[in-house]
Amino acid sequence: MLTEKKQSLMLVINPTAGKNQARDNLFPLTNYFFTHNYHVTVFPTQAKGDACNYVAEYATQYDALVCVGGDGTLNEVVTGLMMCPADKRPRLGYIPGGSTNDFANTLGISSVMEEAAEQFCSGKPFCCDIGKFNGRYFTYVAAFGLFTEVSYETPQPLKNALGHAAYLLEGAKSLTSIKSYALKVRCDEEEINGKFIYGQLSNSTSIGGILNITRTGVQLDDGLFEVILIHMPENLLELNDIVASLMSQKLAECKYIFFRRAKSVTVQADSPLPWTLDGEAGGSFTYSQAEIIPGAVTFNLDLPGNKPEI
Ligand SMILES: Nc1ncnc2c1ncn2[C@@H]1O[C@H](COP(=O)(O)OP(=O)(O)OP(=O)(O)O)[C@@H](O)[C@H]1O
User: Fold this and answer.
1) How confident is the chain (310 residues) per 10-residue block, as mean pLDDT?
2) Residue 75 and residue 207: Cα distance in Å, rounded?
3) Domains, the chain, ordered by start
4) For a pocket test of ligand 1, which of 11, 12, 13, 14 has the largest count of ligand atoms closer than 8 A to its C-beta?
5) Which residues line ligand 1 (CB under 6 A)?
């Protein structure tokens, strides 16, 4: 085994992710990769920001890069990769070890770590689009509005309930309890003005457990975001219409929901609008600019037809 030429693998692990489950699986994972033709170097993060710095500094020296952690750690790893020259980025594997693992759900990666490792080892390259928002990167979502704050603390079973947004909206006691934002949004060539309660730019089917859009034809490699803006309902009938459309995922059919695909989006607000990027706080801005970078990161995935089934 040792005489065989092995490939080099940089394994970045957030030991605190998912209540330490990433840390507790470190030995089986390194053992799996070692017995599948990889020399593994482990980079355990010590604090927020480490994963990005490790990857930006060392990833180009490796044949493969594997991230073990949640969506936040994956965001850092991808950000680090984007800081490496495009032709020197190693292929990326993701072993979901967080508490939400939204993007892993979209990619169809197993939540059993050894199975996810197997999916990487037997996988083929898949070039995935990456989002850029006010100079920062995101792998699957930039969002603002009512539910983005809640999603950090919501328990997992609730997050997984179909259409968390619909659930929350349905639970809204009155319209006055729903906060809205007056915005001017440009979506490629189209401009839309209005009061919105929620918005997202995404490249994913499952977003913070907030919205599931599996039935809307999402493609991770089409060079386009899905853009969803939910208007402030003016009465309970409109609210019911929004809830029904979210639950049935017929977003395009609801006149209170703006649903498009776009390469570039700008959002102008009267006062700083708080955003989340991949489920983490993303800063507050009166002006935001987002664009998609087509095929920026190459995942190694073992999926039917080598393309996420979404
Ligand atoms: N060693 C560390 N100690 C503390 N925080 C860390 C460490 N390494 C990374 N972090 C930060 O922890 C945050 C949460 O990590 P991550 O998202 O991977 O796990 P999670 O919250 O359990 O999962 P998920 O986001 O999927 O629910 C990220 O912002 C990450 O930058």
Assistant:
1) 80 89 90 96 97 98 96 95 96 89 85 93 94 96 74 43 52 70 97 94 74 68 92 88 82 90 96 90 95 95 58
2) 14
3) 7-122 (3.40.50.10330), 136-293 (2.60.200.40)
4) 14
5) 14-18, 45-48, 50, 69-73, 76, 98-101, 279-280
